[in-house]
Specification:
This protein is of the alpha/beta class. It has helices at about 40-60, 95-105, 125-130, 145-150, 155-170, 175-180, 185, 210-225, 280-285, 290-295, 310-325, 340-350, 355-370, and strands spanning about 15-25, 30-40, 80-90, 115, 200-205, 230-235, 240-245, 250-260, 260. The strands form three sheets. Strands 4-3-5-6 form a four-stranded parallel β-sheet, with helices on both faces.
Length: about 375
Amino acid sequence: MKTNNPEYNYIDRNVKIELVSDGIDPKTGVDRLKRQFNQMPIREIERRYIQDSDTLAGMLDGSITESEHFMDGQPRYPDMPISHAIYLDKSARPVHLLMRKVWSHLSTAKMPAASYRNIDKGSWRQLMLKDTQNADKPDVEAISVDNVYARGEMELAAFKDRVAGLRATYLSREDVAKVDESNIREDVWRYPTILDGRRVAIIDEVKSSGATLKIADILLRLAIPEAKFEPLYWSVPTLVRWDIYDDEGNPTSSEFAASQVPVWYDSESGMGRGIRDLDVVESMRDSVKKRRLGAYVLGRPYSGIAEMDSLSLEIMEDLNQLAARFKSGEIDYAPSMDRRDDDYEDRIERYYGTPFKDWLAERKRASKSSRAA
């Protein structure tokens, strides 16, 4: 394996979350904890991203049948091939870019066709939670469409219109032209979708609370009950947890966050994912009917690379280089831990060009040397 040092424009600014002390609260005497974002070694970033991509490829082509990357821990429809994948905008869009680049080196199957839908938990959880006061930190188990039906006729009608709009984005071009926009809630159900009868993956980029993927799963099953949906995570990092205390120093609740986040993830900025934010008002005025119908779920694409924000271009270039380094054997690759033993060993031997037992012995020597240092 080559040992040259990788150079990236943006990836080396990736983060790992750690809890650090912010001092003792003078009122309560309790240690105030805060999240600190620390740089992660480049080679560790490379290894994690390719390993997560390998796990996703295995779930998509059926070679991995049990993993915590499945929302349910295992596939719902193991006897059906996945023929389409919906990547959740905005943060799962770069996942698809990376998957396209490395797929042929991870799987011999045909890569499922892809589409993007913006089903961020922020725009839906207010409707799907009973207690909206804690919508920023939702109880995932409490997310339910039943809560929408308990809200009242106006909110229920708005919810049904949004679900109908989601369905409309998966109609054929000919049927989209026929939909009555003034009565989409009723009219859209007259037409089949292009996903009917198919097993469809829903892909979120990283598991934290699980709220986003759960909401997307509920909405898509409501919008297209004729399809079989398989919700998946690209990355499932460990969680960092910490307690919240009241003024007397008593613990009142716990919070948690994913211990690693992708380079492109930024809760403060919408840049870097290659797509604009949702703009429902603008989309409803769009000259393209499909964009009007799907105003609540379709992001606004750039007209071309020249129009794309600089951060998106940087991340695209870095992911292209990451894929190129993997394909040329320059990354410290380890296959998904969810693969069968024989599959795991075969992939190691093909990538490194050495017997598995020799590779394993070398890893043990390197690990022992590292600990001694």
